[in-house]
Amino acid sequence: MNEHLMKILIVGDGDVGKTSFVQRYVSGQFNKTYKMTVGVDFSVKLLQWSDKDRVRLQLWDIAGQERFISMTRIYYKGALGCVVMFDVTSSSSFLNCRHWKQDLDNKAMLPNGHSIPCILLANKCDLSQRVVSAESIDSFSKSNGFLTWMETSAKEGKNIGEAMRRLVQEIMTVQSSLDVPHPEPQQDIQQLGCENNSRRLGCC
To answer: Which of 12, 179, 190 lies closest to 90 in space, CA to CA?
Structure first.
């Protein structure tokens, strides 16, 4: 059995539902009340990907507050994929996705220098007071290098597993293409993560 360790970042403005998304994906639960993430929280989920492959996902839930953004270079190190999330009822959180993607592309790269695979998630799609259209999201996703985008609802569990499967599939594809044609030794990215199931790294 091959086990693949993948560090995946969850980024976006504060209060867009990143923590709820991670909780729903990892434990299948939704909590209406949550504490603001300070610095970064991370969780682990083990997937039986195939008969021969298991995937251990490290989900790094990055704080969305401006004062923590200077810390992102530390948190991004060794990441193999990313979720950029916004709230469909908040136009500012959608517009700020450009900043998050640019920050990510500047600080997190694959060994070949390319951007890490990134999926755009339009969260809280269960709410009626939507202000961001699907057309706007589709255009933004294509013009900013996202592999795809999906509407999600952490509250209702909509597209949570589907989104992560799509991202993991892309990471597996990218990693296999990096491994095969480049036999020369490279830094072991897997060792840059942390195995613990739940940790909170504070911000100084």
So the answer is: 12
Q: What tokens does 173 get?
A: 């594809």
Angstrom distance (rounded) from CA 8 to CA 48: 17
The answer to whether the beta carbons of residues 146 and 11 sit under 8 Å apart is: no
What is the DSSP secondary structure assignment for residue 88, as one 8-state letter? T
Q: 166 CB contacts (<8 Å, ≥6 apart)?
A: 119, 147, 148, 150
Name residue 12's amino acid.
G
pLDDT tens-place string over residues 27-60: 998 877 666 676 788 899 999 999 999 999 999 9
Per the listing, tokens 């095969």 go with 180
What is the token pair recorded at 113?
A: 């220098």
End-to-end Cα separation, the chain, in angstroms: 40
Q: How many CA atoms lie within 13 A of 133 on its CB side?
A: 3
